[in-house]
Structures
1.
Amino acid sequence: MDFARVELNAEDRGFLAEVRAFLAQHVTDEVRRRDRETGDNFDEGVHLAIGAAGYLEKEWKSAADGGFTRVRRRIWELEKRRVHTPWVTWGTTAMVARAVAAFGKPELVEEVLPKVFTGEVRMCLGYTEPEGGSDVATCKTRAVRDGDQWVINGSKMFTTGAHNCQYVFLITNTDPTARKHKSLTMFLVPLDLPGIEIQGIRTVDGDRTNIVYYSDVRVDDKYLLGEVNGGWTVLRGPLDAEHGAVAAAPDGLQDVAIMQHQTGFMSAAVDAVAAKAARPGPDGARPIDDGSVAYRLGRSAARLEAALSTPSIFGRVAQAQTMRDIGPDLMDIAGPASVLPIESEGAADGGTSEYLYRFAPLAGIYGGTLEVFRNMIAQHVLGLGKPSYAPPATKAS
Ligand SMILES: Cc1cc2nc3c(=O)[nH]c(=O)nc-3n(C[C@H](O)[C@H](O)[C@H](O)COP(=O)(O)OP(=O)(O)OC[C@H]3O[C@@H](n4cnc5c(N)ncnc54)[C@H](O)[C@@H]3O)c2cc1C
């Protein structure tokens, strides 16, 4: 890893100024307030403005293909994050667009990609089902061929962003008699088709997600991605990207692990509680002068730094686990008023630790739970073999 500082040349400094001015104009206090209220993590006006400025296309494409250079990509990502640009729906859209480009029929690619770049088309992930999400291959949503169409029936849980998207990247089962990895077929399903019903769900941290029902939804064959029963091949790339199983760049111009956007909430909470602990209370004493406060705050700060520096798939686990572990300590240090929600009047630390406390469980669930990630590390990184959940063998007497 290269820890050297990056010296920006005059053009890149100009780009930084341009991006800051652009984001200040579009990602306003009102956008952030509205986003907290809806829990959408998406703002259509901002998204369309980013598309119109050409930034979506430049972010999606490689430098060789006309996209951002490595330095500009890093500037763009960090600046977007710094101002809390609503971002979730672009993340899913960009991932699905890669699968469409690789596995879609030419007319589908033509229908979708240009509008992905303008921001008019957004796409979400239809993997998880009400009966389980960790093993996406145990899919019960059925797709049955009928002439040159497919008929889809089933339901998907936690389809985040569906109400702001035009298509869903849907896992279906096209052969219930086959082994599970040979039974899957992927579709890009337009969300305005008859038979699709989207119902909102709010999570404990205020995020909005959805349950989506599919009842006799008729989809043209052009929306099929890849081969029939070859869905696992189509899914591999997006799943690897979501799991952070992509190689780290040696130039240091990217996050060391996925989810560092989310970790910003943890940094904000540590900073806010540290500031509060250093301020004298009504009796003139500073909380930090109490040894137990200093110890727990110091431990939280050290764990934050360790989590932020932990690379790849290990970082995914370290970050989400640290959020869960230090959230209660931070609230405790901040005192009883820390239970007031973020930005409410009188909240001890601006509500940052309370928000971290509510957000932490989710950060260890979506995109794969912490337990599943730990199994992946054991199995694929440490080579410990597949876990066995069978009861221990008993000795024959
Ligand atoms: C806010 C939020 C947004 C989400 N957005 C999306 C989305 O956009 N699209 C989408 O398709 N899904 C989405 N999900 C779903 C998410 O990917 C799943 O919740 C996750 O994969 C876990 O699946 P599950 O909830 O069905 O739990 P289950 O798979 O039913 O697991 C239940 C429990 O068993 C444990 N467990 C399961 N299998 C194993 C194993 N092999 N080893 C050890 N422990 C195991 C789990 O850790 C968990 O504690 C979202 C979830 C949340 C909370």
2.
Amino acid sequence: MSPTDPIAADPSGADPSPAGQALLTVRGLSKRFGDNEVLKSIDLTVQPGQIVALIGPSGSGKTTVLRSLNGLEVPDAGIADVAGEVHVDFAASPSRAEINALRDRSAMVFQHFNLFPHKTVLENVIEGPVQVQKRSKVDATADALALLARVGLSDKRDAYPFELSGGQQQRVGIVRALALKPQLLLFDEPTSSLDPELVGDVLDVIRELAGEGWTMLIVTHELQFAKQVADQVVFMDGGRVVEHGHPRDVLVSPQHERTRQFLRRLLDR
Ligand SMILES: Nc1ncnc2c1ncn2[C@@H]1O[C@H](COP(=O)(O)OP(=O)(O)O)[C@@H](O)[C@H]1O
Ligand SMILES: [Mg+2]
């Protein structure tokens, strides 16, 4: 079933979101760092439960898109809307509270894990729920332990990040994001700093989440994975979306020469 299938989207007839309401709508997102125009009016639409793979060469602005949605960068213009419930107009100088309201709808998984080195695995996972979301430590711990069990890391709860492999650290990174119970998961090249033999485990966890209906925006260079898992592929270059669509169309028969070049180069590595 496709996520846009009305039956899939509304099995109980009790879907609280208006029909056809996108989970994420981005329009005209623009950002410059000094003279460097990094995002040049980016549009994105992500339906509930969709997996969107964001691909493109280094420097094309992929990370900046994710960071903008997660409140880590503030774009100069454009809008971001989550489920029709949070709406930020960046051109209207939004307050920190408005940016935080947007940030709170998503959770990010970073390329370099970004775990707190001086905190244990469990402490890393409950930090956000307890400090930011003000949940009780008992509840947050129970949730965290259940999530760690799911990714096979129960025995690492009291370990420190340096004691874990990269693949284990990234699974903790994913659990930390899930613990926030976000509407949208943002992955920034979640496997590109892993040794090749550790990539599979992390992709398997993401695949499982995809099967559970999480909505995800994933920056990745894993084309095979994108082809299998994504509902939509978005190709960015030079701060613009060059083309987007079904993985078959964008990855197998792309319309734009720039996309073809990028894919060729990636496949040649
Ligand atoms: N904090 C920053 N300050 C200045 N320039 C930045 C900053 N973050 C990103 N950039 C620049 O923005 C461009 C896009 O970067 P990025 O979003 O990281 O691209 P990608 O993730 O596609 O590699 C690059 O030219 C990068 O150097
Ligand atoms: Mg990046």
